[in-house]
Design goal:
Blueprint (H helix, E strand, L loop, with lengths): L2 E5 L2 E4 L4 E8 L7 E7 L6 E7 L7 E4 L7 E6 L4 E6 L8 E8 L11 E2 L3 E6 L1
Parallel strand pairs: 2-11
Antiparallel strand pairs: 1-3, 3-8, 4-5, 4-9, 5-6, 7-8, 9-10, 9-11
């Protein structure tokens, strides 16, 4: 019933851009922390970015150091969709990218309750 579906992945050359989308259904996620994570074979799932709240304050965005200044997260509450705009892509950004939702303010993958199936992003040299 509850579903997150990623889209927008693909193959790009280094320096290019992609915009990933995560469409949610089955419930509204307006009060949840929404996150993006990525994973490559043999490695642990890695935090990329989250859009969250802090002690009742409006949403805040947090980014991994490796993507700060290049990636931007955003959310469309009315459409129950959120996004990851990726610019200046590097080969090391190649991974499967997952969107996720958490009831708590967190950047830990294990704290996220709902996950999409992932979308492949490949960045060539």
């Amino acid at each position: 019933q509850v579903q997150l579906v990623e889209s927008g992945g693909g193959l790009v050359q280094a320096g290019g851009s992609l915009k990933l989308s995560c469409a949610a259904s089955g419930r509204t996620f307006s009060s949840y922390t929404m996150g993006w994570f990525r994973q490559t074979p043999g490695k642990e799932r890695e935090f990329v970015a989250v859009h969250t709240w802090n002690d009742g304050q409006p949403y805040y965005a947090y980014y991994a150091d490796s993507v700060k200044g290049r990636f931007t997260i955003s959310r469309n509450i009315a459409q129950n969709t959120f996004y990851l705009q990726m610019n200046s892509l590097k080969p090391e950004d190649t991974a499967i990218y997952y969107c996720a939702a958490s009831r708590r303010d967190s950047r830990r993958p294990n704290d996220f309750n709902y996950w999409g199936q992932g979308t492949q992003v490949t960045v060539s040299s």
